[in-house]
Amino acid sequence: MKKEKFTAILSGTIALMLFYAASTKLFNYQQAQASMQKQIFSRSIADLLTWLIPSIEFIISMLLIYTRTRIVGLWASISLLAVFTGYLLLAMSRIFGYRPCSCGGIIQQLSYGEHLVFNLVFLFLSLIALYLKKKQTQEPRTLNLLPMKKLQELGPLLLAIETTITKVIRVQESSELKSEANASLI
């Protein structure tokens, strides 16, 4: 019983954070859109992500609240936080050059290092909650196979996303090199 309450508290905490992040982006939509357009994405992708990311955050927060959908919500939060953390690490390594954070509210005030710690803490909380939730179930064998099957199904999609991102980065780098070459000719 204590594990169930602790899992519910962890899931609720993660849900609140995601709900806050989504609400902040939507209440300050124009600011979020302007910030997103400063990222590495094209304007059309940035505009799409400006409403898509908060929508996903809202959906995940709802999945985390309900016991029946909590495992799916935890997997989704782990995935989203892993993507955000990966992007943050790339930004910190200056692989894209300087790119401001597109987060809103209090999170926007954090440095990259503080933001990384924040993401890692919530990623860790999600992993703990998932571990505890899986221990509570009566069918650990079924649940242990389900994520692996889902990950295997996502393999081609993740590969396609990685390939697309790599192509976008190469095109962007190529156009930046051309712009620099043209500027040096002038």
Number of helices: 6
Tell me the count of domains.
2
The helix/strand order is: HHHHHH
Q: Whole-Å distance between the termini?
A: 72 Å
Helix content: over 70%
Provide the gyration radius in Å: 19 Å
What structural class do you assign from the helix and strand content?
Answer: mainly alpha
**What is the beta-strand fraction?**
under 5%
Instruction: Categorize the overall geometry.
Output: elongated
Care to count the β-strands? 0
Average pLDDT over all residues: 79
Largest sheet: none
How would you characterize the overall build of this protein?
It holds the Pfam family MauE. InterPro entries: Methylamine_util_MauE. This is Methylamine utilisation protein MauE domain-containing protein. Keywords: Membrane, Transmembrane, Transmembrane helix. It is a multi-pass membrane protein. This protein is an all-alpha fold. It folds into 2 domains: 2-137, no CATH class; 139-186. The chain is 81% helix and 0% strand. It has 6 helices and no strands. It has helices spanning 2-27, 29-36, 43-65, 70-92, 112-136, 140-185. α1 (2-27) packs across α2, α1 runs antiparallel to α3 and α2 (29-36) packs across α3 (43-65). The longest helix has 46 residues, at 140-185. The termini are far apart.
Write the layout of secondary structure elements.
Elements: H1 2-27, H2 29-36, H3 43-65, H4 70-92, H5 112-136, H6 140-185
Helix pairs in contact: 1-2, 1-3, 1-5, 2-3, 3-4, 4-5
